[in-house]
Amino acid sequence: MRSMFSHPAILFLWIQSSSGWMHPKCQIYDSSEDLEHFPTWICSHIPHHAERYTAACQDVTAIEEDLLGLPPNINTLCISMTHGENRSMSLGFFSQFQDLESLHLPSGNSHLPYGNSHLPNLQYLHLDGLGSGCCDCHFGPHTFRDLVKLSHLTIWGYRLSAMAPDVFHGIPLLQSLNIIEPCVYDLSEILCRIMNIKSLIELKIEAPEIQSINQSNCSILITNESMKPVFNNLTFSDVSFGEITHIEEGALAWLQNLTRLTGAFSQEVLLDLPLSGIKQIQDFSCSGINVIDIESICNVVFLLSIKKLYLYNANTSSLSMSSVELCTGLEYMYLHGIFCSTPYLEWHFISSLKNLNQLTIAGLEDNRLDICSFQKQPIT
Ligand SMILES: *[C@@H]1O[C@H](CO)[C@@H](O)[C@H](O)[C@H]1NC(C)=O
Ligand SMILES: *[C@@H]1O[C@H](CO)[C@@H](O)[C@H](O)[C@H]1NC(C)=O
Ligand SMILES: *[C@@H]1O[C@H](CO)[C@@H](O)[C@H](O)[C@H]1NC(C)=O
Ligand SMILES: *[C@@H]1O[C@H](CO)[C@@H](O)[C@H](O)[C@H]1NC(C)=O
Ligand SMILES: *[C@@H]1O[C@H](CO)[C@@H](O)[C@H](O)[C@H]1NC(C)=O
Ligand SMILES: *[C@@H]1O[C@H](CO)[C@@H](O)[C@H](O)[C@H]1NC(C)=O
Ligand SMILES: *[C@@H]1O[C@H](CO)[C@@H](O)[C@H](O)[C@H]1NC(C)=O
């Protein structure tokens, strides 16, 4: 600490006011009271515990210069940049913050996102490439190996195909991996890079460009590994695709039990979903590319033991006691309907949904709300 104060350029930054450390680009929080004013939009994905030393740096234009004078013992560091900035930093730049537990970084030009800083306490790393569209950052093999405690990793807006096939190897404690907007069309670009992360408990994939769910052939990417993914401990999986036009048989067998699946399906492709190898989906959010009949979706609900259904573009005219019969396992249903052929909903269908706790129907006009016609049979 003494050596920090001996640097004249830094000294003025260390003036503490009643509201915390003064710093031109960073707000610094060191108590739970301070955190009430925390700018959560900068680093909403990073836990910022009370009693933790947190710095949130906004409008950063040059990482190395603008972070000058930060206390070396901060635990959480969030950086957001403006456009046209200098994102480069020298290798090992973050090594000066040895107590870092959480780091939220915009994408850099450097091949290694955090320099090659050895951060022995880092648990949360959020890499945000969005500022540069799809970041073509060439992360090499074992990029995160030096982060020995890393348990939560988010990669947002980085083109995964630009990274080495074994980019995620060597993170022994990784529990949670979020891959958001990986800018790839082929699911194997994702799967083959993550299939060996044995410790994963939570997996989130949001890949709107993927339209065709094909069998992954990982021997293209990884020649020397077993082809079978090994997610033995996965308890949370949330996968979101774009408009699905094709599903190959068995293509999702590596997921088996999904917590949430989101995608846009035509009625024809929807019926292929049970052949994808998925055994169970808890929450299914389905946008219909064309109008989806209730009987078709209920068939899928039954085969995949779906508990919560969000259906957009539903043919509400096809709602009836018999058409929802296979939906009887549903606990929650959201329907965004198309009300073209019949003006009134046939509310009696509800009595077939024995396990339903909550029903939301969107798109109804007030004068069509004829739920009173149902009152003879109480809703349980
Ligand atoms: C960007 O920052 C790095 C590290 O601080 C520096 O070496 C480099 O000269 C800067 N580049 C420009 C264009 O300012
Ligand atoms: C998936 O398979 C279909 C049909 O075989 C093919 O047309 C498509 O190009 C494949 N997509 C990818 C991303 O490999
Ligand atoms: C899976 O979870 C069990 C129980 O928590 C744990 O003992 C085991 O080490 C975990 N496996 C991996 C590969 O992390
Ligand atoms: C997978 O890709 C490799 C290399 O391109 C090829 O030799 C192999 O036949 C493919 N396997 C399947 C099942 O398509
Ligand atoms: C395959 O992996 C094993 C164990 O990781 C290693 O010993 C071997 O050298 C690898 N072979 C090739 C061809 O990369
Ligand atoms: C799927 O996961 C849920 C929640 O973890 C669990 O209740 C259910 O039994 C699992 N189903 C299968 C088939 O593994
Ligand atoms: C909606 O369902 C009704 C009743 O099953 C059917 O007559 C109609 O053709 C369907 N509309 C569309 C657009 O599929």
Automatic annotation (TrEMBL):
Key words of the record: Leucine-rich repeat, Repeat, Signal
GO cellular component: plasma membrane
Xref: InterPro entries: LRR_dom_sf, LRR_TM_domain-containing
Keyword Disulfide bond: no
SUPFAM superfamilies: L domain-like
Signal peptide as annotated in the record: 1-20
Record protein name field: Uncharacterized protein
